[in-house]
Amino acid sequence: MSFSAFLPPRRILMGPGPSDVPPRILEALGRPTIGHLDPRFVDLMDEIKVLLQYAMQTENPLTMPISAPGSAGMEACFVNLVEPGDKVIICQNGVFGGRMQENVERCGGAAVVIQDPWGNAVDPQKLEDTLKAHPDTKVVAFVHAETSTGASSDAKTLVELARRHGCLSIVDAVTSLAGSPLKVDEWEIDAIYSGTQKCLSCVPGISPVSFSERAQQRISNRKHKVQSWFLDMNLIMGYWGQGARRAYHHTAPVNAMYALHEALLIVHEEGLENAWERHQRNHLALKAGLEAMGIRFIVDSAHRLPQLNAVAIPEGVDDADVRRRLLGEHHLEIGAGLGDLAGKVWRIGLMGHSSRIENINHCLQALETVLADVGAPINPGVALSAAQKILAA
Amino acid sequence: MSFSAFLPPRRILMGPGPSDVPPRILEALGRPTIGHLDPRFVDLMDEIKVLLQYAMQTENPLTMPISAPGSAGMEACFVNLVEPGDKVIICQNGVFGGRMQENVERCGGAAVVIQDPWGNAVDPQKLEDTLKAHPDTKVVAFVHAETSTGASSDAKTLVELARRHGCLSIVDAVTSLAGSPLKVDEWEIDAIYSGTQKCLSCVPGISPVSFSERAQQRISNRKHKVQSWFLDMNLIMGYWGQGARRAYHHTAPVNAMYALHEALLIVHEEGLENAWERHQRNHLALKAGLEAMGIRFIVDSAHRLPQLNAVAIPEGVDDADVRRRLLGEHHLEIGAGLGDLAGKVWRIGLMGHSSRIENINHCLQALETVLADVGAPINPGVALSAAQKILAA
What we know:
homodimer, 393 residues, alpha/beta, 4-stranded mixed β-sheet
């Protein structure tokens, strides 16, 4: 068998992540590796913490990147905060709520799952009713921005309900961080995890997390050891902790940290509020174009994520065929539906560096070309100017 | 607060990992990100599997990189193969055996720990005696190449003992893979994990693993769900499995996979046997130089790892001060002692791309300069020629 270097094909990433990674970040990623205990690397870790605190709008000292993808960040929150027998309410409105339930059960916790239709926001009333029916609940968990449906939930209200009923909150912010408003301290979120490959536009593989002082106390006072050695925050704190001598825990993914630092620098330079605003403006432009073409959003406008646009696949159109042609003929990746929405929706990401005018224009043009070619019932020749009108306003 | 791009300092990495990463791998790492479900990425995954099978000398279909560091690879082996109540014998002769015990206990298993002195190989006789005393043992685990001491154990014999007593074997090959002989199929190892940042000379953050058919059956027939969702091989198989349609599990660290592919290509180009031989030859050269200088190895010659040279810190020498000067004045990183060996030994890595003549010469020269300057009892002016003599032979 013969092998050769892998040269990635040209792609424009407008799926549910990874998003387009800016050259600055790729360049940082490829800088020479140094040791994970090098004093200069320790300085970098400190700076990453400060920049992450800014991106998450928190002063939590326990804010750091987990050395593994968002799924591990989710698991880090659950294995540290849930003990065997603990009751956890999960508000599910898409794929990732289901994964939360798996996590709770694998920790020996008892999951009480509240269902909302996929594409809807989490209903705060249902949460309040469930909290009243289960006064022994320890933790409430939900997804802020459901990557599988494009729906945004009211994190502030849900966290407040949890707190009022004496529960800690775990919030999935994988797709929201840096793309839409997220205020960890102001909203008093107890545990939050995210991913690098969405609105931070960094390479995939790392999961930023943050824990409030209340959460940190819960972790320190656990009766049972955390079931994961790799994700035990009591141990990870020893390596990522401020001030004190760093204790070796695992070998940090050094180059991924270079990239994350550069990604966080970019967020800092643009300013969080400006980034949120850009995501919103570009979403409205894409939306205008798609709707002019005759394509319908599946989430109602009040709960639509600007960074993840879930739209119904037009009647009679072959999902996989269109995505294959977009990729093959237009270098464009958009996302398929997941779970219940497989074959019914496309997920068009406008995350981080992918949220740019060029991408919107290209996506509208490519979609229109392929859909017209397969005979889909769309209005041709109006999408781009509809989008342009929004951006010019 | 103001921030700027992180430009890593110049370093020569001769510690216990990460090792020097060749420019080819850094260049591959920084190539444009594509989607983790892109058909071209799926092809890359297939090629990585084949190249990993070569590097591990196995035809196990369940051979793949875990998307997290070696510690997570270790945890993947334990959480998948150990069920609550299972008895596991751990042969400990350094730091990482202790971590194995933590893993077993956090899985609800019962760990029986056999101790050998740090710096010694694992004693097969002790394992045999313990297997006889504990006939209900399900798994035997040990470290092939102890990164904390530089000692190599006889994996073939230990695995054979385990098998003869009806146990599965878990082998830590973090430091051995591609640096010294390792033959997964010939030795009939059941579960093995490694790291990318040692003798593969890839960036840190990924852990290659492989499971035998027997291990795979054990995983498929578990009575309890694997406690980690992220590391559940039943789920990971769905994404990394051959042939069948790939099911989304987590977002793969795409760019790290580019780098791993390139690192495995380099191993394939050089040839495994040649790589083993190079590590051995360069070790002998470094050893000749160090011993000529008057520095003593802590592991007896029969069990010395060529890729990790643990030496006694000369009498009266300040460990941290010397390492700080090597780093600051000579750009050279060597490793400190861990655990019981902290302050007593240095660990000098000759792993992968770091195992080069230039590095040996630089290390000997830098050590001699600093040690002479702090008044250590060494023989000056003889180390480099002693090393050269070996290489010229």
